[in-house]
Specification:
The protein is built from 15 helices and eleven strands. With about 450 residues, it is of the alpha/beta class. The two termini are about 40 Å apart. It has two domains: about 270 residues, P-loop containing nucleotide triphosphate hydrolases (Rossmann fold, 3-Layer(aba) Sandwich), CATH 3.40.50.300; about 90 residues, no CATH class. About 0% of the residues have low confidence. It is elongated, with a radius of gyration of 26 Å.
């Protein structure tokens, strides 16, 4: 493997304008992809993983300019044909975001995509052979017999038959269609394939067959691969390195073995905990992410994961059980948003056991947010109980003010910088900064 990456993405952004009113004025943006950077080397597979809605597919479509990026640089074959270098203005001659239509057409010979749903990837009125051969025709191969020979050979390489050339998509299963999609991606002999959730619509047994096929084809053709998935077990099976994405940002990147053995970002830790284990002696369930799920139209300040993080840092002067701390912050946010209906809680409690007291309602609120009956820090317990009393007395604004002033976290105030843990393994989390080490150690207990 050479030092020069096949694909280098730097500070890539894709923001969608939000418009309202009769004049269609822009009132904000949805930050689907918000400044991601990574490299993919020759013959390497980078797994891009994260939950649905984090921006993975938008990143892929922006890289190949199926959607126009808002900002950033995408450099393909960095040295360029003939060893090109950056111009005096700082832009790279191989920056895909600046390509003309002719350059973009040439670029797409070297980079191909495989999409999630194989059933919607083909024209039902076109034979699969015609669909696989179409890129050859688009890029100037006029000899029909030569196109057919190439496609028939590829169909056999992906585990189908040359006779399948003249069949139609509806005659194939989902797994077979994805094999055909692989053949179509390979037909132009690309350097890089971007596979966007290519096995998520398939049965587990078929997934294993497709992943094995991808391995074989990658070795045979010397391909680089950007493999996008929300499934950590699939990512572990296929990837050399892993990039973990959350709300438009990459929060951790590193060698697959290192990330899986020693996750350094709480979000990565939560994703890994969701992988099923066949050991009947293991405890069921993983890390439960509670709290507010943020929107890309209004991402949280500081660390974007802090509204759900199970290791959110406690400020100086507070030292409570971490699960209680997460519950208090969730309670604070719900009160601030006006999303606690005390009367409904009171009615539900009355139906269960007569007329409830304020103490009963307070206990129910604590239970709902997994907060202990009594916090082990007297100052925290006093402030929390006062906020509950204000809420029960109808003073929602006073309760919200007290909670927001008393319970804060450094995670909401400071955006984390990238921390290097080992060669090629980096993450973005305030817990790794020295001034927060004590609080982070307490959160790990």
């Amino acid at each position: 493997m050479t030092d020069e990456p096949v694909l280098s993405v730097r500070d890539l952004e894709k923001h969608y304008p939000i418009r309202k009113g009769i004049f269609n004025r822009q009132v904000g943006v949805a930050r689907a992809v918000d400044g991601i950077s990574f490299d993919i080397g020759p013959g390497e597979t980078l797994g891009l993983v994260g939950e649905s809605g984090c921006g993975k597919s938008t990143a892929a479509s922006s890289i190949v300019r199926l959607e126009e990026p808002t900002a950033g640089e995408v450099v393909f074959n960095g040295n360029g044909r003939g060893g090109a270098s950056r111009d005096p203005g700082g832009s790279h001659p191989n920056d895909v975001t600046r390509f003309s239509d002719a350059e973009l057409k040439e670029f797409r010979r070297g980079v191909q995509m495989i999409f999630q749903d194989p059933s919607s990837s083909f024209d039902p009125r076109m034979t699969v052979g015609g669909a696989v051969a179409e890129p050859l025709a688009v890029h100037g191969m006029s000899d029909r017999r030569r196109r057919r020979a190439i496609v028939e050979d590829l169909l056999e390489r992906v585990g189908l038959s040359a006779e399948d050339y003249d069949r139609y998509p509806h005659e194939f299963s989902g797994g077979q269609k994805q094999r055909i999609a692989l053949a179509r991606a390979l037909v132009l002999n690309p350097d890089l394939i971007i596979a966007d959730e290519p096995v998520s619509a398939l049965d587990v047994s078929i997934q294993a067959e497709i992943l094995s096929l991808v391995d074989d084809l990658q070795a045979e053709f010397g391909l680089s691969l950007l493999f996008i998935s929300h499934d950590m077990s699939v990512i572990r099976r296929i990837s050399d390195r892993v990039a973990v994405m959350y709300l438009g940002e990459i929060v951790e990147v590193g060698p697959t073995d290192g990330v899986f053995a020693d996750p350094r970002h709480p979000y990565t830790e939560a994703l890994l905990s969701s992988i099923p284990t066949p050991d009947p002696r293991s405890s069921l369930g993983g890390i439960e992410l509670t709290g507010t799920v943020p929107s890309p139209t209004d991402p949280p300040s500081g660390c974007r994961f802090h509204t759900r993080c199970h290791r959110v840092i406690q400020p100086d002067g507070i030292d409570v059980d971490q699960s209680d701390w997460r519950g208090i912050l969730n309670f604070r946010d719900r009160v601030a948003d006006g999303r606690i209906d005390v009367e409904s809680v009171r009615e539900n409690a009355a139906g269960a056991a007569g007329t409830p007291t304020d103490e009963d309602i307070g206990d129910r609120l604590r239970a709902e947010f997994d907060i202990a009956d009594e916090i082990n820090d007297p100052d925290v317990e006093s402030a929390l109980q006062e906020a509950i009393d204000r809420l029960l007395a109808g003073d929602e604004e006073g309760a919200a003010t007290l909670l927001s002033e008393r319970f804060t976290t450094p995670c909401a105030a400071t955006a984390p910088e990238r921390t290097v843990h080992a060669e090629g393994h980096e993450s973005s989390c305030l817990r790794h900064r020295s001034e927060h080490a004590v609080a982070a150690d307490h959160a790990d207990d």
